[in-house]
Amino acid sequence: MTVSLKNTSGRLKVIVLAHETFCAARGQCGCDVPAGRGARRTPRSLTLATGMTATGLDEAVLALPEVRRALQRGEITVEREVPAPPRTPTGLRRRRGAGRHSPAQEEAR
Ligand SMILES: [Zn+2]
Q: Which of 26, 33, 74, 100 could bridge 60 with an S-S bond, Cβ 3.0-4.6 Å?
């Protein structure tokens, strides 16, 4: 599931998506890994300007101590994004006519 975070603190927030926490909670590494042997991975970070909402974040961000602390202080708000219900696969086989209108397609019951 994804979440959105809104910065309500009134100042810029930079949240480091630490590998040990974020990637671990996510079960997948999302760090930048430069090419070359022995290169260190760089965690990504999330910059939230004042009043800005970042959407589509992995809920693993909630595992970050920084985020928890900010939530407790009321500096950010979190919202769980409910995924849109998948469309019925019935229509998958139909090919779309080129630019044709079919007004009766979304017939309500
Ligand atoms: Zn990582």
A: 26
pTM of the model: 0.70
| Residue 36 belongs to a domain | yes
Asked whether residue 13 is assigned to any structural domain, the reply reads yes
Give per-residue pLDDT as tens, 23-41: 999 999 999 988 888 888 8
How far, in Å, from the CA of 33 to the mean position of ligand 1? Answer: 9
Number of domains making up the chain: 1
Q: What's the CA-to-centroid distance between 18 and ligand 1, angstroms?
A: 7
Contact yes or no for 3/63 (Cβ under 8 A): no
pLDDT digits (tens, 9 = 90+) for 58-77: 999 999 999 999 999 999 99
- Assigned domain for 89 exists: no
How many whole angstroms separate alpha carbon 31 and alpha carbon 43? 5
Quote the ligand 1 centre to 50 CA distance (angstroms): 27
46: containing domain: 2-84
